[in-house]
Design a protein that fits this description.
single chain, 115 residues, mainly alpha, 75% helix
Length: 115
């Protein structure tokens, strides 16, 4: 039962063109941020990282609010921000996959069936 649920969730997240395009845009933004951070000298701070948060919005803000409730110093650490960024992107890719599935066949529910 759990493997069927994971398979369905993986198909929703990675198995349709809309989610793949979204994840490709996020990956391109991540490469842009990495190149800008590692190889470009800036006299001031760069705003390149804003693009990643732009693509991860609005779910990243839910993680930030939850992190502030747990503790402000933990929410400011890289150990919290990077996994929250990855999780929010994956949640949004799965949501896009669910919407695509719902639009393709309105009679079929977008949630996986229970066995």
């Amino acid at each position: 039962m759990a493997s069927g649920l994971l398979t369905t969730l993986a198909r929703l997240t990675f198995g349709n063109r809309v989610s793949q395009v979204y994840l490709g845009l996020v990956a391109a933004a991540a490469v842009f941020v990495a190149v800008d951070t590692l190889f470009v000298a800036h006299p001031d701070a760069s705003f390149a990282g804003v693009w990643l948060f732009f693509f991860a919005a609005p779910t990243i803000f839910v993680f930030f609010v939850g992190g502030e409730l747990v503790g402000g110093t933990f929410a400011d650490s890289a150990a919290f921000v990077y996994p929250a960024l990855v999780l929010s992107v994956l949640i949004q890719a799965a949501a896009l996959g669910g919407f695509v599935r719902l639009l393709r066949d309105p009679r079929q529910p977008s949630h996986p069936r229970q066995a």
